[in-house]
Amino acid sequence: MSEVYDIGSKTDSNAMSRREFIALAALMISLVALSIDAMLPALSQIGEELGVESANDAQLIVSALFLGLAIAQMFFGPLSDSWGRKPAIYLGLVIFMIGSVVALVATDFETMLVGRVLQGVGAAGPKVVTVAAIRDQFKGASMARIMSSVLAVFIVVPAFAPAIGQAILSFAHWRGIYVLLLIQGMIAFVWFWLRQPETLAEEHRLPFSIKRVFAAVLETVRNKSALGYTIAAGFIFGAFLGYLNSAQQIFQDMYRVGQWFPACFGGLALTIGLASLVNGRLVERLGMFRLSLQAVIVLAASSLVFAGLATAFHGHPPLWTLLSFLVVAFFCIGILFGNFNALAMEPLGHIAGTASAVIASLSTYISLVFGIGIGRAFGGTVLPLAYGMAVLASLTVPIMFWVQRNNNSTPQE
Prior knowledge:
Mean pLDDT is 87; it is low at 1-6. The chain has helices at 18-37, 43-49, 60-83, 85-105, 109-137, 140-171, 175-195, 210-222, 224-254, 261-286, 288-312, 319-345, 352-376, 383-409. It is mainly α. Helix content is 79%, strand content 0%. The protein folds into 2 domains: 16-197, Up-down Bundle (Growth Hormone, Chain: A); 209-407, Growth Hormone, Chain: A. The radius of gyration is 21 Å and the shape is globular.
């Protein structure tokens, strides 16, 4: 078993402090959120300049990054187990910066999408491996405190990222957003290189094996509980991705909120963060299954009600009704995000590191199918989003009961 140590307990005056480590970890993990949300106010401008055939095509700028994440995140964990944490994060940050440059200089939409996929592939490195580095260095309550601090910063980023993008657009070209992302990647690389020691000793490294990765994929899809909750996570994240893809068009093109778009988006993003905090307080009392089932039933019911209301208004309900629905929906989604991943992981503890990456990748692939479908169905109304959320949440309920019935019928050893 590898040594677990506490950064804050080191006597070396040059050692990284706990606060510095939290700041660096949050910076690297937030690459994903900033790469997605800072771009939203600029989607229509990018689409127009790069000659997209339909306004909905610009949504692929968001989806392409998730495609890169889905492709790469199941491999970065095993790579870091073999090479060490630092080389794996270096590789991810370099690919991210290359993707940022490709997107920055893109003169056609296809090149832009290539850059975004590369950004997603690269961002998967720090996203996955930073958590492993935290696990290397801390344990028990100390690890929980570090993760809570890192995630607190990560939760805040989506709330302010659109405002950052909007601010850049107010005095610079949309390419300035990619300059910001490139600078963030460079700062993370240099900071990590200069200050963070390797956390995985050579004697604890494992040979990289594609066979082992795909063995974990097969074990995940063959385990009914893991597969069920992975599909459920994909459905719920698909609904959320459908929102991300169409949010700019809904708020700015439909409702003409203009400069208020970052405030609308950011406020809703904080709802997910609040739900994560509430979930931490309730999950031990109610249990993950019960709390998740309640959340998904509320999500399905509220989505059906809002879909009916939106239909009555011919797809253009008052803005306050949309915002009220999304507050409820995102609170439920914030509870479901973490719980579904944990529920899927429960039977796979013996391959936890690789299984976590596999579950994240598979659920992201599923979400891309539905998220892209919801976004591309946008036709100037909120109906695709409302009905998409209603259908996906409603389908998740029987999946949960199927998994629970299967677990109850499995003999306990």
